[in-house]
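INTERNAL AUDIT FORM
Audit reference: QA-55
Scope: verify that the stored structure record matches its stored sequence.
Auditor: D.O.
Record contents follow.
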Amino acid sequence: MTLTALLPTLRRSIPDPIALDRWPELTRATTSDVIVAGVSLLRVVDLFGTPCTHSAAAVIPGSDGWPSPTLRATAAVMRVEAISSTPTGVLRLAVDARVDRADAVLTETRLIGRASTAKVAAAMLVDGARAWPLGHGLPGDVAVGDLLAFPCRGSVPATVLAHGDGGEAPGERTESWLHSLA
């Protein structure tokens, strides 16, 4: 259990910790954002909407942030579209991303866009009849429209997470969106 889980008001001044070896290289959390290799995920959402992704080198597990020379990892952002709760109080979050299409690390899912001081509540992502528990939960005041960031193993283009057929258009590039700006 983290200090911010015990005292949620601390989330205004210190970010919830992240597992460095699950996110792309040079990832750091702030109280309301995740920065990947110097790029704010909130800025990526501003530019491209949701779901969106940003890929970089993966981190070698147990290396305290050392980048892999060959492996990639992706930070992705999705938007909460609907919320309900189970009879036991678990939040059921419908989102605009198809997390089943990526090797998502949903235990690292975090709220971005605002610093919540609400207690952590058990939560799960739902897509039709499928559900994925978010091991550590999320702030209990998650609302429709909130942004959730999570890491994925490998290089995952946003088209894979989008609802629809999930395929790419012929000739579409699958590398990081940052390369498309060059």
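Auditor finding: record pair retrieved intact. The chain has three helices and eleven strands.
Action required: none
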